[in-house]
Amino acid sequence: xxxxxxxxxxxxxxxxxxxxxxxxxxxxxxxxxxxxxxxxxxxxxxxxxxxxxxxxxxxxxxxxxxxxxxxxxxxxxxxxxxxxxxxxxxxxxxxxxxxxxxxxxxxxxxxxxxxxxxxxxxxxxxxxxxxxxxxxxxxxxxxxxxxxxxxxxxxxxxxxxxxxxxxxxxxxxxxxxxxxxxxxxxxxxxxxxxxxxxxxxxxxxxxxxxxxxxxxxxxxxxxxxxxxxxxxxxxxxxxxxxxxxxxxxxxxxxxxxxxxxxxxxxxxxxxxxxxxxxxxxxxxxxxxxxxxxxxxxxxxxxxxxxxxxxxxxxxxxxxxxxxxxxxxxxxxxxxxxxxxxxxxxxxxxxxxxxxxxxxxxxxxxxxxxxxxxxxxxxxxxxxxxxxxxxxx
Length: 392
What we know:
Layout: E1 3-5, E2 12-14, H1 29-82, E3 92-102, E4 105-116, E5 119-130, E6 133-142, E7 145-160, E8 165-175, E9 178-188, E10 194-202, E11 205-214, E12 221-227, E13 230-231, H2 235-242, H3 256-263, H4 265-268, H5 275-279, H6 288-293, E14 303-317, E15 324-331, E16 337-344, H7 349-353, E17 359-373, E18 379-391
C-alpha cells in the first residue's frame, strides 16, 4: 500500500481507498494513476533539469577552468619572457688588471686572454713592466695561476742553485711556471763576471745538454752535460771546454782523435798502463818539430817525447766530475813547448808527484798545435797533448 494525496483536500490517503476519509471525495483508480504519473513525470523533469543544469554549469565551469589554466600558462610563459636575462659570462678579457705571486714576489700587471668566473683560465698573456723590472708570461692558466706549458721572459728570475741563489734574466719554456725545456739564463757571478747558459732545463735548473759562456778575458765555454746547474761533462766534453780558451783546440765528434781517446780511456784516466801495448801504438818517427809543421797529417797518433822540463803545473777538479785534472807547461832544450792535460781519478802519481823544474817524458795523443799569450805579452807556439803516461 502506498499513500497518495486527495485531489480535493490534499491530505494523504491510501491508494486503495475508494473515497477520502477526510472530505468524502470519491477516489477513482485513474486519478491515482494520474497522480503517480504526474509525480513520476515531475521527478523525471527535475532530474532532467538538474542534468541539463549540471552540463551547462559543468561546461561553463570547465571552460572557465580551462581558460584559466591556459591563461596561467600564458602568464608563466610571458613571465619567463619578461624575466631579466642573465649577463653572459665573459670568456675573454683584454688588459685586465691581475695580480700574481711568483717565487715570493708580487706582480700587479695586465692580463689578456681566456677567463673562467672572471679569473685567468685557459690561454693568456700576463705582462708587468715597472721600475726596470720586466715580467712576461704567455701560455696556459688554471684558476688564476700559471699552469701547463708556457713561455717566460723576465729579468728578475731567481735561480735556486744547490748552494746559493742567483738572480738574472730567463727566457724560455716553462711548465707550471718553472723552467722546463729549452731556455736561456744569464747573470753575474759573485766575482762580477757575466755568464750565459743556453740549453736544457729541468726542475728550474740547468739539466741536460747546454753551453755556458763566460764573458771574461779567458772566455771559456762549458759545452756538454749539466746536472742541477753544475757542469758534469764527459771526458771529450771537458777537454773541448778546456780547448775553448787559450791555447785553443777542439776534438770533433766522430773524428779519429775522438775514437782513439775513447778506445784508450783506461790509460788516459790513469787506471793502468800496459807499456808493451802502448809502445806498439807509438809513432816513434814523429818528432815535435815535424808534428807542429803539419799537425793535420798526424791525426790520432801516440807519441813519445822526452827531454822536457816542467815550467808550470796546476792540479784542479775536472769540472764537477769525480776526476782530477793536471795541467802542465813544459819545454825542451830546443824551446819546444808542450801544454799537456792529464785526467785521472785523483790517486795517480801524475797528480801527486809532479812539480816545477822536474824532467819528464810524455806518452800521449797530440790534440793540435796552438799558441797562448806568454808573460811578456807575446805569443808562444805549443802542441796540446793529452797525457797517457808520464815518466820522470
